[in-house]
Amino acid sequence: MSDAYHHSPGRTAPPALEARGVWKVFGTDAGSFGQRPASARAPEALAAANVVGAVQDATFRIARGEVFVIMGLSGSGKSTLLRCLTRLIEPTEGEVHYDGENILKLSDKALVEIRRRRMGMVFQHFALLPNRTVLGNIAFPLEVQGMPRAKAEARAQELIDTVGLAGREARFPAELSGGQQQRVGIARSLTTNPEFWFLDEPFSALDPLIRADLQAEVLRLQQTQTRTVVFVTHDLDEAIRLADRIAIMEGGRIVQIGTPEELVTRPATDYVRRFVAKIPPARVVRVSSLMTPAQGQNAAGGVKAACTISEIAPELVSATGPLPVLDAGGRQIGSLDRQRALVTLAAGA
Ligand SMILES: Nc1ncnc2c1ncn2[C@@H]1O[C@H](COP(=O)(O)OP(=O)(O)OP(=O)(O)O)[C@@H](O)[C@H]1O
Q: Gene3D superfamilies under this entry (predicted)?
């Protein structure tokens, strides 16, 4: 995750990916839906007409390198929205721009090309090729692109090491645990070095420890090779761990988009408030939000502005006065009142 997005989410760079007024409705054709006035698109009107508004008027921008998490209860429209973004499902209405180009206007051929070269995808249940080894599965997308097998396998080997599968390259999918299979899926989705990485509930079927391992893996990969990531989950804990920003969906609509800190400290609706109620503020509130700006000399020690209050708990406990706050480069940009930070640390704990 890059610090820039915590401070000014989505505003510093031109959007890598943008959805404008995206709708996906089931139960009517796009033509007749397009003629509906706004009043006939309200949730009650859709329900009365027996139309499922799986995604309703989704509009957002995702900055390059951002981890954007789509979260919501089962049936809220997360998967459908993700599939609209990749055009695995044809939206009923709206626009989806990659670097300013609307992919809904692309020919099938151009779309396949953009998916192969620029997008990587991981799903909860996706088919590994049963007759290919781990190495063969991971090399597969490159072979599809026409890369000679030996070269593709050399690249695959690098990824095997990256995702911690070294020593298992000759195994077949049936000989792997669920967590290992997901690691193969992750590696396979990254062989082409995609700029955009889409993950749809990739860890939901795994037990909590393996799940935490793989979340850490995603964060580690993101630190070494930054991509624009769209991650779908119904697990708020996972969302908070991974996200620069989270979009919360309810009944097909995005009800709030914000950093984890914004959602916890300023929930826009009761629905969001109930979702985030169990999250201790210290886990999401950043030092930068509580500090008083100050220019100082090079401080001998201090805490990073981008850290959460939980992350600096040891420093807070041992400090005797205000703590210098440092930017990523180690320059002092503020001062943190210890008492104020301790109040946040205690809240909800
Ligand atoms: N092909 C389809 N035909 C009709 N309705 C559909 C279809 N696909 C999805 N829906 C409906 O659209 C809504 C959103 O579904 P979606 O799968 O996107 O939700 P979700 O938030 O991803 O749920 P989950 O967490 O359970 O996967 C649901 O009401 C679902 O029943």
A: P-loop containing nucleotide triphosphate hydrolases
Q: Tell me which amino acid residue 26 is.
A: F
Span(s) in the chain for CATH 3.40.50.300: 3-279
Q: What lines the ligand 1 site, CB under 6 Å?
A: 26, 52, 54, 72, 74-80, 234
* CATH class of the domain at 3-279: alpha beta
Which residue's CA lies nearest to atom 10 of ligand 1? Answer: 54
Which residue's alpha carbon is at the smallest distance from atom 25 of ligand 1?
Answer: 74
* Run of H or E residues at 245: strand 245-250
* Per-residue pLDDT reduced to its tens digit, 119-178: 999 987 777 999 999 999 999 999 988 999 999 999 999 889 888 889 999 999 999 988
Interface confidence (ipTM) of the complex: 0.97
Residue 263 CA to ligand 1 centre (angstroms): 24
CATH homologous superfamily for 283-346? CBS-domain (3.10.580.10)
Q: What are phi and psi of 19, to 5 degrees?
A: -105, 130
Sheet hosting strand 67-72, strand order edge to edge: 119-123, 196-200, 228-233, 67-72, 245-250, 253-258
Strand partners, 325: 303, 334
How many A from CA of 75 to the centre of ligand 1? 5
Q: pLDDT for 226-269, tens place per residue? A: 899 999 999 999 999 999 999 999 999 999 999 999 999 999 99
φ/ψ (deg, to 5) at 258: -170, 170
- Interatomic CA distance for residues 107 and 115, integer angstroms: 12
Give the phi and the psi of residue 246 in degrees, each rounded to 5: -125, 135
First to last CA, the chain: 25
Residue nearest to atom 18 of ligand 1 (CA): 77
**What's the predicted TM-score (pTM) here?**
0.90
